[in-house]
Amino acid sequence: MLVAVDIGNTNIVIGFLDGERIVGTYRITTKSNHTSDEYGLMITQFLSLSGFRPDDVEDVIIASVVPKVMHSFRSSIIKFLGLNPMVVGPGIRTGINIRIDDPKSLGSDCLADCVGAYYTYGGPVLVADFGTATTFNYVDAKGTITCGLITTGIRTAAAALWGETAQLPEVEITKPKSILATGTKTAMQAGLYYNFLGGIERTIRQFHDELHEPFKVVATGGLGRVFEGDTDLIDVYDPDLIFKGMSLIYDRNR
Of 131, 91, 89, 130, which is closest to residue 112 (Cα–Cα)? Predict the structure, then answer.
């Protein structure tokens, strides 16, 4: 079994992969002050919950955009699983070319998303990841990342709204029943949802206008499910896209 770990700014998502099957996923809050023992205990508990033992783990692959977490987390894998994990980064073969100004600046999560989207759904493909930040990356028909876009995530925007105003409360990020809100909380939910959805659709249309070729749009990320099925501009929502990409990367390098 392969353990794939996505270390993001808000959450660490751990996936257990048995061949091509994802047999378990777990999410914990990203905290830089967790020790290796704490991470190791969580991993072994998650394995147990899924009916596995540490000996069942063949290898581990990590994609991280939070460098300050890596030392403790990597140490936990070595200590509790007896494995030196593969890390998505420079020198790793992915089957994807990167043709942007600074290829090293592309996040390892975005790279894994693009690998998963291209080899699962084909290209050209626009890959949208709705997380702490929202990213769009374009992979052409030959498997080359040629351009991308980064903006705030909806939860980040929401936190700024209630964090910078004296009387606005924290609200759940969800699709409202109607845009015709009659209370403060529902007004915030409607404003956040429809403003963000409109931005997504305008962004995708602009890619269509400037690229002059048909392409699929594949979305992923924990917050992507909020908009799933509410726009015909997104062709596929795949919450496990990064794990598919990491599995493909692992197979190319093992």
Answer: 89
pLDDT digits (tens, 9 = 90+) for 179-219: 999 999 999 999 999 999 999 999 999 999 999 999 999 99
The one-letter code for the residue type at 224 is G
What is the pLDDT, as a whole number, of residue 48? 94
Q: Confirm if 96 and 144 have CB atoms less than 8 A apart.
A: yes
CATH class for the region spanning 2-87: alpha beta
Same fold, 2-87 and 97-247: yes
Q: Is 118 exposed, middle or buried (0-12, 13-18, 19+ CB in 10 A)?
A: buried
Give the SS3 label for residue 52: coil
**18 within 8 A of 1, measured Cβ to Cβ:** yes
Q: Are 204 and 151 in contact (CB under 8 A)?
A: no
C-alpha distances in Å from residue 252, one per residue of 15, 86, 88, 99? 19, 12, 12, 20
**Check whether domain 97-247 has CATH 3.30.420.40, yes or no:** yes
- The residue ranges of every structural domain in the chain are 2-87, 97-247
Tell me the average pLDDT of the chain. Answer: 92
Q: Give phi and psi for 35, each to the nearest 5.
A: -85, 165
User: Which residues, 6 or more positions from 240, have their beta carbon under 8 angstroms from its beta carbon?
Assistant: 15, 22, 25, 220
Which of 18, 55, 101, 109 is the catalytic position? 109
- List, as residue ranges, the binding site: 6-13, 107-110, 129, 132, 184
- Give catalytic status of residue 109 as yes or no: yes
Residues making up the annotated binding site for K(+) are 129
